[in-house]
Write a structure and sequence with these properties.
By secondary structure, the chain is α/β, with parallel strands linked by helices. The chain has a single domain, classed as P-loop containing nucleotide triphosphate hydrolases (Rossmann fold, 3-Layer(aba) Sandwich). The protein contains 7 helices and 5 strands, in the order E-H-E-H-H-E-H-E-H-H-E-H.
């Protein structure tokens, strides 16, 4: 069994995931890092820009499929990993999906402090993307963990409870 973490950039999937995996004796995998293996790009942002959304999602789908056949992994998904049905099936058939949730206003504030990600055409686009993905994450996840209302210890404890 695996545990998958979904959520927006800046929700803590990697930070909390690494710590929880260590406590559970699971290996930690970040889908974005795995997608970069074998590609010349140094960041997921560059990969997306260079190959375009369709090929990017094809690469992501192959990585999710590869990760889902292993056992005892805690996997941090990319924000769009749940867009494809095949990914949702692989995730559902091989583990538990948890949503690390941060409210829109906090995510938007963090977004304005960095360059606009390549998958966004404008800050206004983020609002509709957030709404669509948030509803998707809520519907598909076993639990939504509001990382803005819990301590680091409480968040990690919730994640670890699914690995027992």
């Amino acid at each position: 069994m695996n545990i998958y973490l979904c959520g927006f950039q800046g929700s803590g999937k990697t930070a909390f995931g690494k710590k929880a995996a260590r406590l559970m004796g699971f290996s930690f995998c970040d889908i974005d890092e795995e997608m970069l293996r074998g590609h010349k790009e140094e960041s997921i942002r560059q990969l997306y820009k260079n190959v375009g959304e369709i090929l990017f999602r094809d690469i992501e789908e192959k990585v999710v499929a590869k990760m889902s056949v292993a056992e005892k992994r805690l996997i941090a998904l990319g924000g769009g990993s749940l867009e494809r049905e095949k990914n949702r099936l692989n995730i559902n058939n091989s583990g538990t999906l948890l949503y690390l949730y941060r409210p829109y206003d906090l995510l938007f504030y963090e977004l304005t402090k960095r360059p606009l990600p390549p998958y966004l055409t404008s800050y206004a686009h983020f609002s509709s993307l957030f709404q669509r993905r948030h509803e998707h994450f809520m519907a598909l996840s076993k639990e939504a963990i509001n990382v803005s209302e819990k301590t680091e210890h409480e968040i990690i404890e919730r994640i670890v409870s699914y690995g027992k």
